[in-house]
């Protein structure tokens, strides 16, 4: 049965036409329309099927005239599905049709209609211009086509079709009707033939239990059905038939009724090397018909048929390799039980068959466009076949001694028994296997070649695990062949590929083999060896040592030897070797540290978990904490190994920094090997190195007796001079031998060489400095040292954050250098602001200073003075207008303080600056100092109670911070009532009760005591070219004397009141002493008060002003209503100076005018009657 068999369509006609050139043209044009496409087969017994393409063979009917009566079931395609008769007769020649053509067609019809499952079709070929037009009612005689239909369409089915043919026609539409009729006829014949054959198969299968039933006959019958489906390109239906045949064979095999077969296998030459999927290597069909086919040959034939169909079905070519591999594995085991086969027959057969299937799959896939997952699966299937072939080499190699009896070549400790018998007279024929049996070099070349092919297929398929496993087997082969260097390279490179996929067992095996290979090479156990060992220990821990593919029996002893060797190797390293995130050891820290108590530093408890089954010789354990601004603390402790399980240890850090820190990392040191673990939370978007999902926080309490450095503004600040910081060093419990202090602030430079004690001296025995640091020497415990350090201008900042780094050595522990990192914030702005207002009154200048706080804190001011410069000033007198016994003033954010001074200058303007000195302290500083004094009075002054003193002070300060109700009473009287936040106090709290009582009884002392800060602000005395005193004096009509005497006459509303306007000018405060000789043109202007006064006279005018001169102008005022009235104000301004220009405009002298009568009011009485007055309107 040829797999390329086509559907047969016979044709017949008048011999003269068939031998003419016209038929040749029609035949050629008809073949051009083939194959038929998109044929839809609708069957009652199955879903609709679509035949994409159908090849047809046109054959003369005469060549098929003799029907075969063979008993061997053939495919349905061996007989034509449709018989076609060609008629050439014009409608005008109906007589010829009646006399000749009709008889010829009738004879043909009688022959073909008697054949089963064959359709017929009459094709009427005419010229295009002679084509019959249907529906011509007036055509009396009818056409040839009508005659054909009437004579032969007897079953209501139209089997006659007309073809309008022209030799030059290229229009496909000409063939449309004919092709549709052709498809219908083929489908009808095929459907009936298939139904009949299926009935025969069912009938044969139903007789299975009857005597005489033969499986091979049944197989041939059902295979004919599969061949028929395959012939019309219905490959899936054909495959179903073979699958059902396979199931039937398994049933026969289950029933152990193999009488229709020969033996299980009858080996013939080349059976072990022939292509597995070839159906032409043996006459399989003849063997089946003769009931002599062996089970071996039958199974191969059935597999070949199935695989060839799978290759033709879209998307199912990948099943070929799977099906072949499963068949080779299963049937190979069955053949291994046969002892009469030639030696190594089964291995040779599986090897050759697997390789042949790979080659056949490549051939079938050459015309396919495999992509994506399909291509990966295809390559994976070939890789499995290649690995199956390689496994046969494993069996042969172990048997003949080319390979060792151990994994990965053999899973048992004994050599496997090869298939077949060495005494058999038959031999295998596979060339590769024969070469492998002859020489080891040939074996190794073939072995490596087939392995590399499998690796390549697995790599293309994305099956890294399988490819890497084969790489490992090649490394094992290198070990066996003595190529240790190459094996070591392979073993060390493979684990990196296993780790991302969590293939721990394979990773462990490769690492274990790498260690063994390293030992066989007798190489130095260097850093590379340590890394290999650590990777192996990681795999041991990850699987708890249970699933590892280890070759050592005593795992604990094996690991113990490795760990000890690692310690020995780490000891001889020249530098530290770091290894991150190793799971063999895990360190968990406590959430809070404990103060050392008798020295600076703190203890941190940790739990070390050893996940290995042996002691790990750890020398030191370290925990690194990170705080604000990357401040780092290092806790460490030396230990003597860690036993399996949990071990507790206490780490110590000599630094006394307090606060909450993040556990950054932990370390375990084994000589020069440092195992590290990161604990900080990873950056978003970056893969975490650690398995910990949360951040570990460690709180370190504040050590009140530890070394401390505080920064603040100096006690005395003078604006205009270089800035400096006051540094206060407290030793606490420590006797300091030496301390080095450094300050770090971005964009600010500290001048270390200019450091000085607060008293201005530089004691070389206590304080030393260089260009980069300050050294403090020989300070005893409980000492307090203050010094000033200048720094560059930082006025652009409201505050600066100073990172203080202190390295200090105590007398008690001279071998330990403690490092203290502190972050201090120091305000660069002053705590108070000063505004000044100046008032000129003749030769006297009044200055009002308003002092406000720049923060939310209260400021206490004890004194404010306006002082002369250091050299003094002649002729200048400064007098404070406030009372001499003024008490301390408290400045709050809502209530500033005012200080008033006046200056008398005998010599005119003051050219030098004065100094405004303020003595102040913050309310918090005053209260804290008061609390410290009260505590010192209660507690004895000794180092033994230093801790209790600091604790008591902090407790009281915290209590005051919680409630501010005490502030107002303290500001008035000095009584300090501590808020009741302590609850009920017992006998142990007696010092606290006594301090609270002492604070309650406190009163502000006079004069104030304690330490005060001071700010010195330079004050410039302003200049004023002209000081004008403007006034209006009323002159009663009856007296030329101005009002102001004891007998002032009464004034009435509406009464004219004479007045005198005076402007007194002084040039005393001018910018130059020579200003007193000048004259300025000035202008006065009387305020319009239309609701109170009617002003008559010269209300505006210019005059020449001179030093200490008075200009007068008479006015008349009329009160418009009664009551206490304010006199009109007078505006006096200077006019531009002629000939003097300032900044492009005419110069105008500075002028300040004050109203002499500004505080006066005039009582105007109501008038009862009417009076007439004659007013003088002036002299001119």
UniProtKB/TrEMBL annotation:
GO terms for biological process: early endosome to Golgi transport; intra-Golgi vesicle-mediated transport. Residues 408-423 have a biased composition (Low complexity). Residues 1018-1165 form the TRAPPC10/Trs130 C-terminal domain. Keywords: Golgi apparatus, Transport. It comes from the Eukaryota. It is found in: Golgi apparatus. Residues 407-426 are annotated as: Disordered. Signal peptide: none annotated. It holds the Pfam family DUF7077. This is Trafficking protein particle complex subunit 10. One of its GO terms (cellular component) is TRAPPII protein complex. Residues 6-314 form the TRAPPC10/Trs130 N-terminal domain. Residues 706-810 form the DUF7077 domain.
């Amino acid at each position: 049965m040829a797999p390329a068999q086509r559907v047969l369509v016979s044709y017949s006609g008048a011999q003269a036409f068939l031998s003419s050139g016209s038929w040749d043209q029609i035949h050629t044009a008809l073949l051009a329309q083939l194959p038929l496409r998109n044929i839809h087969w609708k069957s009652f017994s199955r879903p609709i099927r679509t035949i994409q393409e159908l090849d047809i063979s046109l054959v003369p009917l005469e060549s098929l005239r003799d029907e075969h009566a063979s008993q061997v079931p053939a495919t349905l395609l061996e007989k034509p599905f449709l018989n076609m008769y060609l008629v050439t007769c014009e409608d005008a020649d109906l007589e010829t049709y009646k006399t000749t053509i009709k008889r010829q067609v009738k004879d043909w019809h009688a022959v073909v209609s008697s054949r089963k499952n064959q359709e017929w079709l009459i094709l009427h070929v005419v010229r295009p211009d002679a084509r019959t037009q249907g529906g011509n009612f007036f055509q009396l005689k009818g056409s040839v086509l009508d005659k054909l239909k009437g004579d032969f369409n007897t079953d209501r089915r139209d089997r006659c079709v007309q073809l309008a043919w022209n030799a030059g026609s290229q229009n496909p539409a000409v063939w449309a009707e004919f092709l549709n009729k052709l498809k219908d006829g083929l489908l009808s014949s095929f459907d009936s033939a298939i139904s009949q054959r299926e009935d025969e198969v069912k009938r044969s299968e139903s007789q299975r239990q009857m005597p005489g039933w033969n499986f091979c006959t049944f197989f041939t019958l059902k295979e004919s059905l599969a061949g028929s489906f395959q012939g019309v390109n219905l490959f899936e239906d054909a495959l179903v038939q073979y699958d059902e045949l396979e199931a039937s064979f398994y049933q026969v095999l289950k029933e152990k009724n193999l009488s229709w077969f020969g033996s299980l296998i009858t080996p013939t030459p080349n059976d072990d090397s022939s292509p597995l999927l070839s159906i032409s290597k043996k006459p399989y069909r003849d063997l089946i018909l003769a009931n002599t086919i062996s089970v071996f040959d039958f199974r191969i034939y059935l597999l070949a048929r199935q695989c060839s169909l799978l290759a033709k079905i879209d998307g199912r070519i990948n099943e070929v390799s799977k099906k072949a591999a499963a068949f080779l594995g299963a049937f190979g085991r069955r053949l291994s039980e046969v002892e009469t086969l030639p030696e190594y027959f089964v291995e040779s057969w599986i090897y050759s068959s697997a390789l042949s299937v790979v080659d056949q799959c490549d051939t079938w896939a050459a015309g396919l466009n495999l992509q994506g997952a399909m291509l990966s699966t295809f390559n994976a299937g070939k890789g499995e076949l290649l690995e199956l072939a390689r496994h046969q080499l494993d069996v042969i190699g172990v048997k003949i001694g080319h390979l060792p009896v151990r994994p990965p070549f053999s899973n048992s400790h004994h050599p496997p028994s090869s298939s077949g018998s060495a005494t058999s007279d038959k031999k295998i024929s596979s060339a590769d296997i024969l070469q492998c049996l002859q020489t080891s070099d040939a074996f190794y070349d073939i072995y490596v070649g087939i392995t590399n092919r499998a690796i390549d297929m697995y790599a293309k398929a994305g099956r890294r695990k399988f490819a890497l496993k084969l790489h490992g087997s090649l490394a094992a082969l290198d070990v066996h062949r003595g190529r240790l260097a190459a094996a070591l390279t392979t073993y060390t490179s493979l684990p990196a590929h296993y780790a991302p996929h969590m293939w721990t067992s394979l990773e462990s095996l490769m690492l274990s083999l790498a260690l063994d290979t390293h030992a066989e090479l007798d190489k130095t156990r260097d850093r590379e060896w340590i890394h290999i060992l650590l990777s192996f220990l990681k795999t041991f821990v990850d699987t708890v040592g249970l699933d590892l593919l280890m070759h050592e029996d005593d795992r604990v002893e094996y690991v113990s030897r490795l760990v000890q060797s690692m310690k020995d190797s780490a000891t001889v390293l020249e530098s530290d070797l770091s290894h991150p995130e190793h799971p063999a050891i895990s360190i968990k820290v406590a959430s809070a540290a404990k103060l050392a108590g008798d020295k600076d530093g703190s203890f941190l408890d940790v739990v070390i978990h050893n996940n290995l089954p042996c002691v790990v010789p750890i020398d030191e354990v370290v925990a690194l904490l990170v705080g604000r601004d990357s401040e780092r603390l290092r806790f460490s402790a030396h230990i003597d190994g860690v036993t399996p399980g949990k071990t507790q240890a206490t780490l110590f850090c000599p630094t006394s920094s307090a606060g909450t820190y993040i556990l950054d990392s932990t370390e375990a040191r084994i000589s020069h090997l440092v195992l590290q673990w990161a604990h900080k939370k990873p950056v978003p978007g970056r893969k975490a190195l650690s398995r910990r999902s949360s951040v570990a926080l460690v709180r370190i309490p504040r050590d009140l007796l530890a070394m401390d450095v505080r920064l603040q503004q100096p006690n005395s600040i003078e604006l205009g001079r270089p800035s400096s910081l006051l540094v206060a060093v407290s030793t606490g419990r420590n006797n300091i031998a030496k301390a080095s202090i450094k300050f770090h602030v971005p964009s600010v430079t500290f001048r270390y060489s200019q450091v000085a004690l607060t008293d201005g001296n530089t004691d070389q025995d206590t304080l030393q400095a260089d260009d980069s640091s300050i050294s403090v020497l020989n300070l005893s415990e409980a000492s307090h040292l203050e010094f000033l350090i200048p720094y560059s201008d930082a006025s652009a900042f409201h505050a600066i954050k100073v990172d203080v780094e202190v390295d200090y050595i105590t007398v008690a522990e001279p071998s330990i250098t403690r490092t203290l990192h502190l972050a201090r914030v120091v305000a660069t702005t002053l705590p108070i602001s000063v505004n000044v207002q100046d008032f000129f009154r003749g030769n006297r200048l009044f200055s009002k200073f308003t002092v406000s706080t720049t923060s939310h804190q209260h400021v206490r001011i004890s004194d404010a003075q306006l002082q002369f410069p250091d050299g003094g000033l002649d002729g200048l007198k400064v007098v404070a207008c406030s009372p001499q016994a003024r008490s301390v003033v408290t400045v709050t954010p809502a209530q500033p303080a005012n200080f008033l001074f006046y200056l008398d200058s005998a010599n005119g303007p003051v050219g030098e600056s004065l100094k405004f000195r303020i003595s102040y302290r913050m309310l918090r500083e005053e209260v804290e100092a008061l609390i410290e004094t009260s505590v010192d009075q209660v507690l004895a002054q000794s180092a033994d109670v230093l801790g209790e003193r600091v604790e008591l002070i902090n407790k009281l300060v915290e209590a005051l911070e919680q409630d501010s109700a005490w502030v107002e009473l303290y500001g008035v009287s000095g009584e300090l009532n501590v808020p009741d936040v302590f609850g009920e106090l017992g006998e142990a709290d007696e010092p606290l009760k006594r301090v609270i009582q002492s604070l309650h009884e406190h009163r502000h002392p006079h004069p104030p005591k304690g330490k005060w800060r001071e700010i010195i602000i330079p004050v410039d005395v302003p200049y004023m070219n002209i000081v004008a005193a403007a006034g209006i004096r009323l002159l009663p009509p009856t007296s030329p004397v101005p009002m102001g005497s004891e007998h002032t006459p009464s004034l009435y509303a509406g009464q004219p009141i004479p007045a005198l306007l005076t402007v007194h000018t002084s040039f005393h405060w001018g910018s130059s002493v020579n200003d007193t000789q000048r004259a300025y043109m000035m202008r006065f202007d009387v305020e319009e008060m239309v609701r109170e006064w009617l002003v008559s006279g010269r209300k505006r005018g210019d005059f020449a002003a001179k030093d200490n001169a008075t200009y007068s102008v008479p006015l008349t005022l009329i009160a418009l209503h009664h009551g206490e009235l304010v006199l009109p104000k007078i505006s006096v301004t200077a006019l531009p100076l002629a000939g003097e220009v300032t900044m492009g405009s005419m110069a105008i002298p500075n002028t300040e005018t004050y109203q002499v009568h500004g505080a006066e009011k005039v009582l105007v009485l109501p008038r009862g009657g009417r009076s007439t007055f004659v007013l003088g309107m002036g002299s001119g």
